[in-house]
Queue: 2 jobs
Job 1
Amino acid sequence: KWKKFAATEFSNKEEFQREVVRHVETTLARSLYNCDELAAYSGAALAMRDKLIIDWNKTQQAHTLADQKRVYYLSLEFLMGRTLDNALLNRDIKDYAVEGVSELGFRMEDLIDQEHDAALGNGGLGRLAACFLDSLASLSYPAWGYGLRYRYGIFKQEIIDGYQVEVPDYWLDFNPWEFPRHDITVDIMFYGYVRRYTEDDGSTVNIWEGGEVVQALAYDVPIPGYGTSTTNNLRLWSSKPSTGEFDFQKFNSGDYESSVRDQQRAETISAVLYPNDNIDVGKELRLKQQYFWVAASLYDIVRRFKKSHRAWTEFPHQVAIQLNDTHPTLAIVELMRILVDKEHLDWDTAWNIVTETFGYTNHTVLPEALEKWSVPLFQNLLPRHLQIIYDINLFFLQSVERRFPKDRELLSRVSIIEESNPQVIRMAYLAIIGSKKVNGVAELHSDLIKTTIFKDFVKIFGLDKFTNVTNGVTPRRWLHQANPQLSALIKEKLGSYNFLKDLSLLSGLEKFADDKDFQKEWMDIKFRNKQRLAKYIKDTTGISVNPSALFDIQVKRIHEYKRQQMNIFGVISRYLSLKAMTKEERAKQVQRVSIFGGKAAPGYWMAKTIIRLITAVSEVVNNDVEIGDLLKVVFIEDYNVSKAEFLCPASDLSEHISTAGTEASGTSNMKFVLNGGLIIGTCDGANIEITREIGEERIFLFGNLAEDVEDLRHAHRYGKTPMDPALKEVCEEIQKGTFGEPGVFAGLIHALTEGGDYYLVSDDFASYLSTHKLVDEAFKDTAAWAHNTIVAVSRMGFFTSDRAINEYADEIWNIDPVKVDN
Ligand code: 26W
C-alpha cells in the first residue's frame, strides 16, 4: 500500500525521462530549453538519487527490524569515484536512462562525464574500502561505513613544464549523493584536563573536562548493492563550531575577527585529506582528525546499541568494528573510556567487550608508514586517553611478564610505548592488543607480518589471532562498468550476468579460449578500448600513439618501493637499444607505448623527481623521428578512479614491479587481469596468488624473492654489488644530459649508488629487461596471447571483493546477511 505513494519506481524510459525533466525544471529551476550537459547530469543524478533513498530507507528499516549484528567499517579514506553510472548499473536501469536522455538530446556518456570524482582517499587502501562497501551492499550485509567528509579530497595533479603541481580538489559544489543530517550531531572535546575523585563507595572516577569542543555533523551517502534492494549507509562526519562554543560574547562585543577564527579552526578538522600514502608525518591536525572521526562514530554506534536495551556484555554480539589500518585505533581507547568513565563498568568487563569487538587490518610493512604518536603531543590533545593507553599497556605487560618471566627484552620490544626521545605510542601494537583478530591483505603479506614486524605478538597471542584475507575488487565497477563490451561478450557466452554476483562462474569461459571467432571478438574489444585510450592521449597530450602497439601501463601512487624508476630506466634502455639498431633490425621490433600515471605526495621529493624523469624521457623519445611508433612514452595527468576505469580495459601489459616483500597486496593487478591484460611483476603481494590461479605461463614474473632482500641490501651496504651494466649505461646517458640538465636527476642516481640501492633496482634490472623481451616475443603470437588472456580472465573469480567480504563476515565479524524486500 505504501509503495503506491513511493516516488520513482522506474520501469521504463518515459518514467526516467519524466523525473529528469521534473528535476531540471523544479529542483534546478531551469528551462529545458536552457539545459546544458551539467544540468542534464544533475537532473539524471537527482532522479537516480530519489530511487536510492527509497531503497535506503527500506534497508535501514529492515536492518532495525532484524536486529542482527552489524559491522562498522572505519576508514579515513573512501575512494569512491563517480556514482551515477555505478548506481544505474547496480539497479539495472542504465538502458532506460540511456534511451531516456537520448530523446532529450543527450548522450549518457557525456552526462556521466560531468560528475566530479569523490576522491576521499590516496590509493589502494581507500579504493579497497570503496570496493568493500559495494560488496557489503551487494551481499546484503547490514553494514555501515564511517569516515570523514573532507571539503578537499586528494589534490588534482597538473603537469607543468614536466613537473607535478598540486591544485586543491574542491568537490562539493554540487554533490547530490550526500544528505546532511542536521539532527545528528555529536560534541567532540580536545585538550582539557582529567579530574580524579573518589566516590563514597571508595571507587575512583576520572572525568575529562575543560577542553575545547567541536561539533561533528553527519552526512549520509547511500551505497546501492548490485541486484538487490539493499542500500547501505556511508556516514561521513563534517566539523563545525559547537553551538555552545561559537563565541557570541566575542561576536557581540565586536571581536568579530577572533570569533570567525574560532569557527574556521573548528572547520579545519575536516577540511582536507592528508595526501600521504605509506608515510607517517605525525602532525597534530591529523591526530585531531582521527579522534574527531572515531569519537563521533563510536558515539553513534553506542547510541544505536543502547536503543535495544541489552546488557553491555551483549555489545560484541551486536557490533563488529573493523579498523582499516591503524588510523582509527583510538576507537579502542575511546570505547574503553565510554565503558569505564561514563558507563562505570569495571576495567576487566570493559576490556573483554572491547577485545571481542574490534578487528584490525594491516596494509603495509614499510617502517616509515607505521603510525607513531609523540607522547607529549598526545598528552596535550587527549590527556585521558593517554592514561587509558598507559593502563592498557601496564596490564598487557604484566600478563606478558607472567607468561615470559625475566624476558625484559621482550617487554620493551612489545610495549605500546617506545622509549625513544620523545616517547612515542606505537599504534599498530595498540591495535593488535585491543583486537580479536589481525589480518594482512594477501598471503605473502600476512605471512610477513607474522614473521617480522609482529613476530613477538604471535608468540604472545598465538597464531589463531593472525589471519589472512586476500584483497579483492568489485566486478561491478571494474568489469561491468569499466568494460561494458567485455562484460556483454562474457554474458553472451555464459548466458547471463550471474557472474557479476558470483565471479567464479567466469570459469565457464575457459572452454572458448581456443575458439577463433571468440578470440577475435575478445581482441576486437581490447582494440577498441585501446583506440579510446589513444584518442584520450591525443586529445589531452597531443601525442599520437598507434593502437596496434603493445600498451604497457603502470598506474599507481608514485613511490620508490613501487619502482616506477625501474620502469623508466627500462624504457631508456629500450630506447638506447633501438637507437643502436639498423633499420632492418628496427623493423622487426614490437611497437610499444609506455604509459605512466600516478600522484606523488607533495613532500616526497624523490617521487617528484621520478615524474620529472618520465616526462623528460617522453619529450625526447616521442620527438625522435628515427624511433617513430616503435616507442612512445606517455604520462597521464591526474590519475584517479575514473581514469582507472578507462585505463584498465586498455592494457596489453601492466606493471606491478615492487621490490619483493614491500607491496602488501596491490589491487590494480587484479583489475588489469580481469580486463584481459597480462602482467609483468615481481613475486610480491597478490601477484603470487594471481600466478597460482591463472597459471605461471600467463604471467611474466621476474626478480629476486622477498626472502633474499635482506641479504641483497646488506651486500649493497658493504659495497659488494657492482651496478648492473645495462643500468650503468642508462645512468651514464642521463648524466650525459640526453634528457636535459642531469643535475635534476642526481638524486635518483645517488639512490642507486651511494644510497645503497635500497629498493634493489640494480639487482632486478637484468631479469626485468630479459622478461620484457619475453613479453615482446609473446605479443607477436596473437592467437596465443588471446588464448592466455581468456584463460586468465576465466580464472580470476577468486579476486572479487565479494569473496573477501564473505571471509571477513565468516571468520572475523560473525555476521549474517539481512534480506530486504523489493
Ligand atoms: C600514516 C600514513 C599512511 C597512510 C596510508 C600510512 C599507510 C597508508 C596506507 C595503509 C597505504 C596503503 O594504501 N596501502 C595499500 O593498501 C592496499 C589495500 O590493502 C594494498 O593493496 C597495497 O598493497 C598497500 O600499499
Job 2
Amino acid sequence: MRLRNKPWADDFMQENNHVVVEEPFSKKENWKNEFTEDQPLHLEIGSGKGAFISGMGKQHPEINFIGIERVKSVIVGALRKVLDAEVSNVRLLNVDASDLRDLFGDNEVDQIYLNFSDPWPKSRHEKRRLTFHTFLEQYEAVLKPNGQIVMKTDNQQLFEYSLMSFSQYGCKIEEVNLDLHTLEDPYNVMTEYEEKFSNKGQPIYRCRVRFPE
Ligand code: SAM
C-alpha cells in the first residue's frame, strides 16, 4: 500500500472523533456505550482504506462495527468512506491490534474479520501473521462462545498456513471457499484489495471458523 504523509490527518481525525475513537483502551468492556444501539459487535483487523467496514456498516445497521487500522495516513481514507456512507454504527481505531485483550473484555466481540492481512511470507516473520497462534489466543479471549472469524485473502500460502493454524488450534472450520467470486454473491462486501486482485482475475479465498466450545 502506497503511503503518503498527510499532515492534516490528526486534525481530520480529531474533528471526527465520533468515528475515530480517542483513547480506545479506556473503552475496554464498555464498547456498547460507544454506540447508539446495543447490538452485536463485529471487528475488522487491518481495515485499510475502509471499503469493507463502511460497506458492512451500511448493509448491516443491526450490527456495530469497529475497524482497527494502525497506519494514520491509511485510516483517514477509511474515515472519509465512513462519513460518506452516513452510518452511525461504525467506529475506527487508529491503533496496532497487537493485543486485542487490551482493547476488549472477554466475550465482548461477536465476530472478527481478517481481510487481506499482510502475508509476512518469510518464516522468521511467522509471529507477525494475524493467524499465528498467539493472535488466535487473543481472538478466542475476546470473542463470545461460538463467535466466528471470517478470513478473505488472495494469498494462497497465507490461506493454507491459516487453515493449518486454525486447525491445529482446534478451531472448527465451517467454510472453505477457494474462489469466492465464481458465483455472484450480492451480500459480499468487497475490500479495496479484493477489488484490485479480483479485477486481475486472481481467485479470492475465504474461510469461516469457530473456536471450540
Ligand atoms: N483490509 C484491507 C483491504 O483488504 O483492502 C487492507 C489490506 S492491507 C494488505 C493490510 C492492512 O492491515 C494495512 O493497512 C496494515 O496497516 C493493516 N495492519 C496490519 N497489521 C495490523 C495490526 N497489527 N494492527 C492494525 N492494523 C494492521
